[in-house]
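Schema walkthrough. Field components (list of strings):
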Amino acid sequence: MKKYLWPSVKLTLLLVVLLGGLYPLFIAGVAKMAPGKGDGIKVTHNGRVVGYENIAQKFSDDKYFQPRPSTVDYNAAGSGGSNKAAGNPDYLKTVQERIDSFMVHNPDVKKENIPAELVTASASGLDPHLTPAAAYVQVPRVAKLRGIPADKLKQLIDANTQGPLMGLFGLSTVNVLKLNIALDDMK
Amino acid sequence: MTTEILGVIATYGITLLLAWPLSRYIVKVFRGERTWSDFMAPLERLFFKISGINPKEEMNWKEHLKALLTINLVWFVYAFFALFFQDKLPLNPDGNPGQSADLAFNTAISFVVNCNLQHYSGETGVTYFTQLFVLAFLQFVSAATGIAALIVVFKAMKEKTTTKLGNFWDIFLKTITRILLPISIVIALIFVFNGMPASYAGKEAIVTMQGDTVNVSHGPVAGFVAIKHLGTNGGGWFGANSAHPLENPNYVTWMTEMVAQVLIPIAMVFALGMFIQRKKFAMVIFGIMTIGMICLLIPSMQQEMAGNPAIAHMGIQQATGAMEGKEVRFGAAATGYWSTVTTIISTGSVCGWHDSTMPMTGMMQLLGMMLNCFYGGCGVGILNYYIFIIIAVFISGLMVGRTPEFMGHKLEAREVKIAAIITLLSPFLILAGTALSSWVLSHHPDANWAVKPSAWLNNPGYHGFSEMLYEYTSANANNGSGFEGLGDGNVFWNVSTGFILILGRFLPIIGPVAIAGLMASKKYIPESAGTLKTDSLTFGAMTFAVIVILTALSYFPALALGPIAEYFSL
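Field assembly_structure (string):
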């Protein structure tokens, strides 16, 4: 073993510099040319930075479209999910409460039309997206509170829907922050 | 629905298309032929000169293992002290504290052995210094360790009779400079142009649309996530791992991360055939591994896309499947695919929480780690499969009543004993660990640790048992994923999984290298009509049967108490 100790120590130090130092520095350098300049992509509205494109934020006001439930309360200083098992009774109680609460805030929606993603917590707690169905189901509420025709809101959702990659791979998504900005810009 | 499945098929297809040329390149590098990456040669020579290494000195299998174990020990000591004192080191913009001794022990081991079981959260538990100079560094070198051990076995299988199996330092360093680093750079650049952060700035305060102030964690994520997947490490920059929208911003990055983690494991199988010039042998192995993957994959995707029966019972539509602990931009099918791949190849990164997947999906994840040889982690996957081949050759030999031979060498008592010990090791570590934790939980629920045993489990009943079983299975397989509801940030889990990590890593490396080294030093016996054909489909089926029977016998009781019972109670 002794024969290999010093070579190991020296090689380790050299590789720490190469892989821990130079490699990420190089990536950070090139990232200056990328969207968001390597800091993550931010969204501005009326000249003010209002958030990261990809980080969900809290919209407690019923006049806005609401993102999926978060177990970290949309606090991006951390991240995480519920880690609740499918049959955990406490968890199922939480889901039932979310359903009840949704029904109170959206009296025009029938229970069987609530998409599951609106009553289940996301993995990161920061999921910035809704499925189109989960956005449509909030239309009657937003339309009533804002006095905007439902048809116009549906068009707005469609305009803010990103289809599958190249039309073939993955799901359609709606970015909630961008949708709400577009919503505020109406009128 | 259709586009979800198409996405999965396309991702697997791209992996195969890239793995083929990569395998040819890998073979060229380790045969010492000319390649485009020869411009790295001066850097390698410089490193060897400073380190006082002669890269041309041939080593036998024992010398290989001595060098490998020595440098791993150096990494462990370095990582432990850096994590323990990280609050006093630079690059800590968020002011995170140093790790406790037991957590630093667990984290250091876990990254040295390519596992990345994380008993901390990236946002609060480590600093930029330790993320980059310790963890990302270890993600490179631990992957290179596995590949270097495998190349030694390749060389031993190829030669007729030899004790000279190349130079460990040469193979190890070239794995980094010729394979891991260049590919990581390409992957990281794809990431940054898709919005993944790469700068060194600390948390940023943002005032949201409705006026809340939120501190958003970021940092030099992209380079870390590239090697995290390419090296089948799996440790996340953020607590939410690859479910975090800054660690996996969109479907392009999802596909890239998915291809990156299974690329080298598949390429190494192809490389095996080219390197030892037995292509059919490698293709049969590839076929068996792929069938194994599909057997685990189909139930996982089906269960996740079908949704949670308990929620269906409440009268809620689950058109998108079981969405608890999943992200909309990936969906249920993609998350199901990821959960299978990440468990069979020992990455252990997640894009949705395994704890919240359906019971049968959870069982497939557990089986993936218990088998740990369908493609498998960087280098070590084939080493695990190699042990099963030895057992299959031995059993076949018993059946026909001849001394078993493999690759032109007699397989004798010593090699079979080593293979048997390695095979028995996994169930012993997993089941003994789970039994111990169950005993502590039921007899000392109020032990005074950071998390009391009575508060360990995040879910009651059968699933709670599965959480403990999963943790030890993941530690033994050097996987690193978890049923993360488990309260594992305390001295009991840090120490017990720490020891299992060491045994579960190094014995399955020492075993195959020793067997291959011992066999290669024996007299070469030319193939005859009576030789067992190890490249035939029959022998492939035989190996598959050995794998299935050994796994079923070892783990069925534990699985029956966990996911199977949970499935029938749902």
